[in-house]
UniProtKB/TrEMBL annotation:
It comes from Alteraurantiacibacter lauratis. Keywords: Glycosyltransferase, Transferase. It is an enzyme of class 2 (transferase). This is Glycosyltransferase. One of its GO terms (molecular function) is glycosyltransferase activity. SUPFAM superfamilies: Nucleotide-diphospho-sugar transferases. PANTHER family: GLYCOSYLTRANSFERASE, UDP-GLCNAC:BETAGAL BETA-1,3-N-ACETYLGLUCOSAMINYLTRANSFERASE-LIKE PROTEIN 1. Residues 15-177 form the Glycosyltransferase 2-like domain. It comes from the Bacteria. Its EC number is 2.4.-.-. InterPro entries: Glyco_trans_2-like (IPR001173), Nucleotide-diphossugar_trans (IPR029044).
Amino acid sequence: MVAQTPNRESLPALSVAMSVYNGERFLAEAVDSILAQSFADFEFLILDDGSTDATPQIIADYAKRDSRIRPIIRENRGLVASLNQLLDQARAPIIARMDADDIAMPERFAKQMAFLAAHPDHGVVGSWSRDMAEDGGPYVTMGHDHPVTHAEFLHNIRHGGPLLCHPAVMYRRDIVRAQGGYHAAFRHCEDLDLWLRLASVTRMANLPERLIRYRHYAGQVSKRHATEQQVGAAIAYEAWRVRDAGKPDPTADLDVLPPIEELDAFFGEPGVAARVRAAVAHGIMHSPVALRDNGFEIMLDHVRGGGNQAGLWRTVARLAKLGEPGRALRLAAALATS
């Protein structure tokens, strides 16, 4: 049975927000999974962020076939600018995020919309995900499922753990806009910073169902920009800690985060830089990209400063296997003398 297409003259119940950059490889699968949703009363904003491949043409072809699609084609401005533009141009009170390399299950929107209708005190709802490899096959991870209740969210914020899978999230537009949307300073971890800010103003949940298939591949942002992502995430948690103590957030109006060595002065307390270095050092241990870029120097600074060495001797062996014997020796020497 083909879902009825809503009248474009009326406001949709839901806005689907997707930003794409050079996404031709997986885009059709992602778009098809949205158009196949059992809940059909949505507009589908697809923003092309200056792609140089066939992405704009793919979007245009889909827009000709389904009137719910609102294409936005423009020059490259980056993901944070794109997400905020989608947030501003969405017409519905509720927004569903979607990435151009993932696949949504047919009942995703119906179940999340029903949850938000039944829980007006919740501003954000995500879902569990099913990991898949680049070719769509199984992908094994050792991570934990995302928290289900708001209490579990707060526990994970305080003690470590996942919060939300960004492309599986649905949220109330006004709540996110009232918090300033996505902050430019937290590039590559803009979603985590947003969840940490939202956690103090609304309730958040995940449906304990795998309503999205999340793709892992070498070209995704979390792998290409692992060090910057880890640094930003660690600073986002420091900013949350400040807000949780009832103090003004010094990162609120930043466009760029300060260097790690300036963080103690920036936050006005000692120990911030050391905590950030520790978080980064242990967050990049399994990232070949980060171990080859400036993440390695952050790890060395952490060790030389007397930081926790747990797991770092295994990183020495990992560096050797990666063909980085010089870095392996430098890390081993730092561990041996600290």
